[in-house]
Amino acid sequence: MENILEQNGPRMPSASVDLRSGRATVKRHPERGAYDLETVTEILDQGLVCDVAFMVDGFPYAIPMTYGRIGNSLYVHGAVGSRLLRSLASGSPICLTVTVVDGLVLARSAFHNSMNYRSVVVLGTSAEVVDPVRKTAALRAILERLVPGRWDEIRPPTRGELARTTVLEIRLREASAKIRRGPPVDDEADMERDVWAGEVPLRIRALAPVADRNNTVALPSYLSAINDGTVFPRARRE
Amino acid sequence: MENILEQNGPRMPSASVDLRSGRATVKRHPERGAYDLETVTEILDQGLVCDVAFMVDGFPYAIPMTYGRIGNSLYVHGAVGSRLLRSLASGSPICLTVTVVDGLVLARSAFHNSMNYRSVVVLGTSAEVVDPVRKTAALRAILERLVPGRWDEIRPPTRGELARTTVLEIRLREASAKIRRGPPVDDEADMERDVWAGEVPLRIRALAPVADRNNTVALPSYLSAINDGTVFPRARRE
Q1: Which domain does B54 fall in, by range?
Q2: Across the interface, do B155 and A108 touch by the CB < 8 Å criterion?
Q3: How far B114 CA lies from chain A's nearest CA (Å)?
Q4: Is B196 in Cβ contact with A215 (below 8 Å)?
Q5: A83/B6 Cβ within 8 A
Q6: Is there a domain that residue B181 lies in?
Q7: Residue B3: which residues within 8 A CB-CB, separation 6 or more?
Q8: Which of A1, A64, A74, A81 has a CB 3.0–4.6 Å from the CB of B99, allowing a cystine?
Q9: Kind of pairing between the strands at A59-65 and A93-106
Q10: Taking CB atoms and an 8 Å cutoff, what residues of chain A touch B238?
């Protein structure tokens, strides 16, 4: 399922803003590549967490983070003073990767085993968001992406809390999506083998919310809609 | 939820082989860090996909991949000739990150919002596996980790297929785990706020397997145990 970034490859038709660049091009299985803003943002909206890759002292790191989106900008956040956030705020190059796994693809041969998935690789640099209003909007987007309706109920961040939080913006300028769907693709010679073949679909599902022991408040409507089996994130299409 | 790798930090007691290094140390929330082989491998065994971070021409990339484990070695695979696999096979530094999201932690304030999760960051270099027997064992481990019992039913890779597949080994020598569990931790001053607080547990669940249209074989026992709601990967503890 590797999403190869390579210099060359056939140019895909794009329905809208094209996020493709020389290095943001799917080389392996180019037919699985997509570069239009709609496809990229739809996958981003359906991911749960991202990995942010960056370099420190010449070594690569990938760190899981929650994220939010407002228009063509992605936002991540963390504690002020962390080495990660300090590195990222300096404008150094980063890669933000989101993967939605849709199922296991079980072929008749080991070689054709696969997964159905939708992944996005965003390339760019991060910029620190300093303005408190924009910072708050970004934190809101991070929460509301996963739990729509919650932000207005909770206590918003104070000036002091905002000062202790670093928010980074990554503009969506250069990105590729890679998508595999459908049944296994077996070699003709393997079709008669006595082995079951098909897909095992996978979904992220919620269990019923569990109140903390100090809670005295009824489950709000935006959470009571969640019961055992609700697919997450809610934006995900079935 | 960022997993900070930093030079300093309190040393955690370790029950077994210690995978900690100067840079593989959780700085932010050090109480969430763990470095013993048992904790690290248990999380690795329960992940679905990993992101492999590496550098090309001075830029960081993180690419989703499936993976397997045999003892203290992790394995990833891809097509021969891909730029990613060529870069990784050269022994350049990489980072392999696995994240298991256990739930959304909904606090009474924006600042204390969180996730319950278990993540592992493995630092090291990759080495190409050339020997066909070891290569086949690695491919088997990648499949059997997710679908135990399947490998012996399917057609194993031919010499030609093996030659078209690159398998990389990453030895588990330097790694950190970061774990958050439990309810939200709110400020005392927020406890009387009129807002529900608690956790929304999340699980990856399978739907019933879907046979491909050429399939004429009954569902094997290792798949018939999967029905709507089975938690994935199977190794995961409830």
Answers
A1: 30-202
A2: yes
A3: 9
A4: yes
A5: yes
A6: yes
A7: A63, A64, B26, B28, B97, B119, B121, B176, B178
A8: A64
A9: unpaired
A10: none
Interchain pair B59, A3: CB under 8 A: no
Domain with B147 in it: what CATH number? 2.30.110.10
In a domain, B171, yes or no: yes
| Residues B136-170: tens digit of each pLDDT | 999 999 999 999 999 999 999 999 999 999 999 99
Instruction: Give the distance from CA B104 to its chain's centroid.
Output: 19
List the structure tokens of B237.
């503890």
Q: Is residue A207 part of a domain?
A: no
CA B91 to chain centre: 21
Residues from chain B contacting residue A78 (CB–CB below 8 Å): 2, 28
| pLDDT tens figures, A204-238 | 999 999 999 999 999 998 888 776 667 777 655 44
Q: How far is A213 from chain B (nearest CA, A)?
A: 8
Euclidean distance between CA atoms A30 and B125, whole angstroms:
28
Total count of domains within chain A: 1
Integer Cα distance of B107 and A212 in angstroms: 9
> Closest partner residue to B64 among A3, A203, A226, by Cβ?
A3
Determine, yes or no, domain membership for B11.
Answer: no
